[in-house]
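for the writeup, i need someone to sanity check this before i put it in the appendix. the sequnce is what the collaborator sent (i think, or maybe the updated version? ugh). structure was predicted straight from it, no edits. if anything looks off just tell me and ill rerun, i have time this weekend
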Amino acid sequence: MQRFFDPFFYPRMLFYPRRLSYPGRLLLATTIALAAGSAAMACTPTPCIEASPNPVILGNGQTEGPTNLDWNAGLVPGGVETTVEVDAMETTLSTMPVGQGPYTIEIGKQYLFRIRDSNKVQLASVAVSAERRPVAGRVPDHGFTRIPSEPGRFAAAVNPIEGLFSVHGTFFEFNVRVKEPRNITAFVTRNQPNGCNTDGLDIVTVGAQGTKNYQLQHSLKLYNLEPSTNYFWLIKMTNKAGESVCRDGSFRTKARLSTITVQSVHVFDDSDETSAGDLRFGFFVNPTFDSNQGDPVAFFPSTGETSINSGTGVDFEPDVKLVVPNLEDIDFNVTGSDDDEYVGLGLNTCGQLMIPRNSSASNDCGDYNGKTVPLHFGPEAPGQEEISRNFRVRVLRGALEFEVTCHLQVTYN
C-alpha cells in the first residue's frame, strides 16, 4: 500500500522501513520535501484534488508509471481524509487537508482518489488510469504461439501476421492480413487456449470471416465482454486444403468510468410561503434509504444550506460530480430538504442529516421530497460504448418541488 505523509504514520515508517515499497519510499521523500511549501502550491478552488499526468502514458514493456497528486480540502470542520479506491477496495492515504506526492498507477486498473469529510461525504474526486498509445503496424510478437499444421510445406504460414488488434471496454477488435487466402475464426475465452483445439475452452464470444470466399484481409469485432476483465484470444486460420494454424494471447478489457455531473437545480416551489427556502440537496448512487449513505454520495451545498426563492434556478459552482467506476446499472436518487426548524435561542436540534427519499415527507425539522431513477452505463449498441448525454430528474407532488439537470459521461480507460 502506498501512503502519503501523515504525522501519525510517519514514526512507524522510521521503525519499519522495509515495509515500504520503492514507490512508497519515493512518495515519502517527495511529500516530506514538499510539506513546508505544499499549501502555497495546492490546487484551487477548494475542495479539490488533481492528478498529473492523467492518464499515465506507458511505453512498450511498461506496466506502471507515476502520477503526481495535489489536493486541498480547504477549511472543513471535523477533519478530512484522502482515499484511493482500486478494485472496489478503498484505502486511506492521508489525513492531512493539504498535500502533494506521486502515486504509482498500474495498467489495466482504475484508480479513484477522493477527499472525504469526517462523515465520509465526498468533497472532491479524480479518476486516474494508465494506457499505452496504440501503434499501427505489425502485431506484437508477445503472446503468440507458432503452431504449424504441416512442418515444411506449411512453414511460411507461421510468419508474423501483418496487422494489429485493439482492446476496448466491452469488445475486442482484430485487423489482420495473412499471406495466403484463408478463412479466419476468432474466439475470446476465459481460459488459456491450447493450440487450435477448442475442446474445453470457456468461450465467451466467437467471430468468423471469409467462410465462403477465402480472403487475405480480415477485420473482426467480438462483443459482449465485461470491462476490467482478463480474457484470452485465439485466431484460427484455415486454408483451402483444410489446414489450420492458430495464434493466441491474453488481454484485459478497459475499465468503465461513469461520471454524473449535477449541473443545476431549478426550484418550482419551496415549502415557505412568505420567505425563501433554506434548501439542501443530496445526490445518492445506489442509496440506502434508512441513512444518508450512497456509493458515492454528494451534497449541495457541502455544508449548511442555500436560500432559493420559488421559481428560480441555481447553477452549481463548481458542478457537483459523482464518479462511478465499472458498474453497468445503478439507481440514482436526488433528494431535497427545506429546513423549517425555528432556532430562536440559537439551538439546532435537527442538524443536517439527510436521507434519500422517494416521495414527499414533512416533520418538525422541515419538508422533504425525492425521486430515484435507474441509469444504464452499458453500450447503447454493440461497439458504441462511450456515452455523453444530458438527463433531468423532476421531483414534484410535494411541498418542495424542483428539477435537477445532469450530464452523464461514460468512458473507458
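The chain has three domains: 10-129, 155-252, 256-412. The domain at 10-129 is CATH 2.60.40 (Immunoglobulin-like).
thx in advance!!
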